[in-house]
Amino acid sequence: MLLKLPPAKVEATEAAADKPVVAILTIEDDIQLFRGNRSNFADLIRTGESLGIVTYVVTIKHLKLGAPRILGFSIRPGEETWVQSWYPRPTIVYNRIPQREDERQPHVKKKLAALSRRPDIRLFNRRFFNKWSLFQWLNENKTTKSYIPETRKLTDAYVLSSLLKKHKTLYLKPVRGKAGVGIMTVSVQTEKKLPYRLQMQEEKGSRTFRCGTMRRLWDRIVKQSANLGEPYIAQQGITLAAVNNRPFDLRALVQKNGYGQWELSGIGARVAGDSSITTHVPRGGYIDDPENLLVSIFGKEQTGKMLFKVQGAAITIAKQIERSCHSRLCEMSMDLGVDTDGHVWFFEANSKPMKFDEPHIRNKSLERIFQYSQYLHRLKQSVKGGAGT
Ligand SMILES: Nc1ncnc2c1ncn2[C@@H]1O[C@H](COP(=O)(O)OP(=O)(O)O)[C@@H](O)[C@H]1O
Ligand SMILES: [Mg+2]
């Protein structure tokens, strides 16, 4: 339930000088005041408060950069009610605008651009990533290049046929996709009468189309991808390690810590649902323990080494993404695959990670955001102090 008090009557919260002020940024909504995952926002506010850090939700509309105080939302302890109050101006703005479409609105773009130019405010997570840019960025570095499957922009049938000569399965993915929407796989089974096989991700499970010529395959792909109106990438298909015939992949959460360094907050595993071409939980996939899964395939000794390798890969990849995207990041989640030979592959990174359901990862992920905020605040103060002496 929501309670909206007139701003004139609400109390103002004060900030401690030695602490940052954290605003969770989202977009206004006509019906429910603001959008986004409310339980995530509530967890963030509770974590911030437990550390004595003023934390509130603010909408693009209410975040007036020149104003001395800001109208924000918080949740009453022990209640499910969101209330509006005046808050000090943020020193950290944590971008949690939930949808790409929202971030594409001109007034939102303008505000984010203005925020990123402010020297007194640190903006975390400037924008969503795009799958094609991610591959270009990771291609620029020798180490990160070794983790990426061969990827091309799907511009014409020639791209498809030349990749199919090298790889027996391809993944076709919209560059701005999420949760498996619009993903297809292509494979060629030369021994069959209709050798080309296209599998399309559906709500639950997948649909298969077969044809005898490249021409027909291409026409079907064009028709199917037109539904989304998004450019696609074509990517080498990786034969993921599998348990009971179900492939699985790893979800790593990488965040900056209280020393300003990238650190792994945790790794989860997602096992594919029956007849699904992806591992997403809403598509019948399920959560499992990465160590148990890997031990059952590679044995205990190898698993230790592999987890170490995955951790190293995740951190190296995060650093390269931050370097290439030219904006300050505080966290990202990553979908990584391990193939049947134990090689680690990168599928994508998300700049606004979804909540991890594993409690040990969840708790750490909340704390880290504030630890990194505190680190930045201390850094700023020491620079200020240094300048005065
Ligand atoms: N090249 C690939 N080879 C094998 N499996 C893949 C490949 N690309 C994606 N997948 C599977 O599909 C899932 C979804 O792909 P992803 O790139 O994360 O798209 P989305 O943005 O829809 O989550 C991955 O987590 C992985 O299980
Ligand atoms: Mg994904």
Automatic annotation (TrEMBL):
A Pfam family this chain is assigned to: ATPgrasp_YheCD
InterPro entries: YheC/D
SUPFAM superfamilies to which the protein is assigned, alphabetical: Glutathione synthetase ATP-binding domain-like
Designated name of the protein: YheC/YheD family protein
